[in-house]
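User: Predict the full complex structure for these chains.
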Amino acid sequence: MDDGKIKIGIVGYGNLGRGVRSGLAQNPDMELAGIFTRRPVAQMADGGPFFSYAEIEKYKGLVDVMILCGGSAGDLWEQGAQVAGMFNTVDSFDTHAKIPEYFEMMDTASQRGGNLSIISVGWDPGLFSIFRLTSGAVLPAGEEHTFWGPGVSQGHSDAVRKIKGVKLAVQYTLPLEDALDDARSGRGAGLSATERHRRLCYVVEQPGAERGEIERAIKTMPNYFLGYDTEVVFTDEQEFLREHSGMPHGGFCIRTGRSAEGAGQRMEFSLELESNPQFTSCVLIAYARAAARLAGQGQTGARSVFDIAPALISPMDGFELRRRLL
Amino acid sequence: MDDGKIKIGIVGYGNLGRGVRSGLAQNPDMELAGIFTRRPVAQMADGGPFFSYAEIEKYKGLVDVMILCGGSAGDLWEQGAQVAGMFNTVDSFDTHAKIPEYFEMMDTASQRGGNLSIISVGWDPGLFSIFRLTSGAVLPAGEEHTFWGPGVSQGHSDAVRKIKGVKLAVQYTLPLEDALDDARSGRGAGLSATERHRRLCYVVEQPGAERGEIERAIKTMPNYFLGYDTEVVFTDEQEFLREHSGMPHGGFCIRTGRSAEGAGQRMEFSLELESNPQFTSCVLIAYARAAARLAGQGQTGARSVFDIAPALISPMDGFELRRRLL
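Assistant: Here is the predicted structure of the two-chain assembly.
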């Protein structure tokens, strides 16, 4: 079967994998070839096409691009190189400090396999990174600030959930309006993360737990909350499940600078997302299109979003793009 | 002399050309090789290096990229193909409806000369276009709106200045806040340009001219003002020159969409520029870097910003970009 569509494989079926699966329906030039999971395939209740990750090699030639939907802490270090040795890949590796190391690993694996991989695709790293690059190239004399939120931080939510007496918890990271104003007006130099964000926790406590102790444990937690303007709100389970089950996120990336003749210039890119994983999935899908095209040109090795010309992620051809969007 | 710097030529010395000249000082990997003008070189008072446009061919091999700073209505149709036959070029051609035609002309000329040209570089067309492409690829089910301003529209200012009795005039295009809110919340479908913008004119009248007649002439001018919420403010010459001599501009590009599972997602890119031509100059300089690199790979023909990978416009190499900005 070759209908000319780009055949997509999904590796890992969490929030991101589900988002890719549903997102493909909005991209008629692509189709789902299979979802590869380490869980027992017979137990997957979500209506296939599920295949065992252990047998992924059998699908060589049947999948144009594998979208790796595992996490950056463990999965991608293991699966990334394995899959990139067999298939073209796109992933959302997001541990900023380890990107150079991960890039090298993926470059070696994909070159060895004669494949192309695009790493660290999403919004940060990803679209925000492109904005940082572009705005810095255009306004070399300036300052740039990234604000995250309002949105759910999984890492901080996990940290609160580990506190004794906490049954359910979610942590929202919120950009501070004053700091946003400072950044926009070019007075933001030197603002630290604690000066740019505040933290808001919704907590359901275990029966008999002391609210005061939980609140103190949160606010004094080093690295996560200490030093931040942190608010803790206790709520009941019903309201929690109704109001705080989504995964909204977003943020602001702002660069202010001066042209050589002194004019003040401001560039800003922002996102407001009701679903963080569903948005990241959409970015992964668009870059899978680029991966298929570059691989089709015979290119191999690792790339980041910095190496991908915008036209490659659009379903339109060059003429249509120039006519309609330029 | 070859110090490894990218040698830039400037063709045309208006606001844009002056902005490129000063902007090069912020880009240490580049240097000015010459400014080419059709005006008598001896009369140029701004401290060289000025050369006659008529002799531009003599500079082949001495200039890596010519930045074309002429206007889209006339200059670029004439100079674009001439210069692209001899040099790599970057220009800010901005007549949206004629971009396909201009692209073909530049593609033919630059291929014939074995050169590379990047057309329609700036912010709209340019950075806004990239946002339209990217946001449309990521959120295929959605709507997108571009708002211009607050900023000076040269075309509308010129139209007001042609009215009998007008001595000095400037027209600011202002996005309507309500329409911006509608666009941001996904309720902006079908908003026309007149529903998205209002127009504010500052006018100094000739002695003896009737303010009422000027105001009526402005507000009833078809294509330019008729149908718009237009405000006319009369002022004196001194205040006009003090307050309205700058060329601020900017705008907002907004896309709202829904992922396949229904989550509402919003992307926004905005600019607030104290000097429109100085900002466009900075974008031209960054893309001249890309033109030099692509030409160095032996690539020829016309490109738009859609064809340029972000990394190509940055002075940093791939490793530094991944480490510092991804």
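Chain B touches chain A through 67 residues (CB under 8 Å).
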